[in-house]
Design brief:
The protein has 66 residues and is mostly helical. It has a domain of 35 residues. It contains 2 helices and no strands. The protein starts with 7 loop residues before the first helix and ends with a helix.
Length: 66
Amino acid sequence: MSEKPKKLSEKLLELEKDSEWFYSDDFNLDEAVAKYNKAIALAKELQKDLSELTNEIKVLSEDFSK
């Protein structure tokens, strides 16, 4: 069974949680690089999702303005 894609809001919450870890008492240098790389990948994914959503909105706006 394939995993259901995460919603934009779920990705944002995950990135926020990962970012907060860097300021928490749980922070340790051994995990920092892996967490940082995960956060960067998630941020890039969010940027792509937002870009696609922006394009969708532009297309819909153009359709409604005709």
